[in-house]
């Protein structure tokens, strides 16, 4: 008897690129159209103790040193890693809204000489690797115009978003490019939804337990 492990999908992008919508729809489609068990997660998970500290920082209620907050975001992912592994091994797929790529780029956007790519990447080495990361790419000028503009949180400013986008491009060129598929997020929601579902469907078709491992 063989059973397939779940697939691990990450959706990355700038603020307001449509990640949350696409995650929710992909999860519903995997469950209802492909009839596979699936769980949706997001980082930062603001419900845990590290998540509460991160939330206070994002709201501007606290000031936290740049390295320290980077480590907290990373810890917020690490504390979920055993659950992600367990779900995948038990055959449940996992769709995640943001992952370590966000971790790197939001820190690199601060442009500190002592906060390097190597340091930022290092903290998340060893986390479960997704089968695929979809990067919903959207010009920050267009993103800003979406649904009421940016909110009030720390990074939700056009100048920051432009920097973050530049850093995403830099990071995807640098490493893990084979895990990442950039998608132009300036397309109708339904079209993007269909593309992601199609990808998941064909991935399930190709997959066999023997060919899959978690690294
Ligand atoms: P979200 O809940 O997806 O809107 O994310 C909240 C904000 O936190 C968003 O501006 C992106 C930022 N963010 C997400 N992950 C990380 C991370 O690992 N490090 C840093 N510095 N910022 C992050
Ligand atoms: Na946000
Ligand atoms: Na979001």
TrEMBL record:
Q: What class of enzyme is it?
A: transferase
Q: Name one GO molecular function term.
A: ATP binding
One GO cellular-component annotation of the UniProt record comes to: cytosol
Query: Its Enzyme Commission number?
Result: 2.7.4.9
Q: Which GO terms describe its biological process?
A: dTDP biosynthetic process; dTTP biosynthetic process; dUDP biosynthetic process
Question: What Gene3D superfamilies would the database entry show?
Answer: P-loop containing nucleotide triphosphate hydrolases (3.40.50.300)
Which PROSITE patterns does this one have? THYMIDYLATE_KINASE (PS01331)
Record bears the keyword Cell cycle: no
- Which CDD domains does the annotation name? TMPK
Establish whether keyword Lipid biosynthesis is in the entry: no
> Keywords, A to Z?
ATP-binding, Kinase, Nucleotide biosynthesis, Nucleotide-binding, Transferase
- Short name of any one Pfam family annotated for the protein: Thymidylate_kin
Domain Thymidylate kinase-like: from-to ranges:
11-194
Q: Which domain of life is it from?
A: Eukaryota
The pathway entry for this protein reads as: Pyrimidine metabolism; dTTP biosynthesis
Task: State the signal peptide span.
Answer: none
PANTHER family recorded: THYMIDYLATE KINASE (PTHR10344)
The record's similarity note reads:
Belongs to the thymidylate kinase family.
Q: What is this protein called?
A: Thymidylate kinase
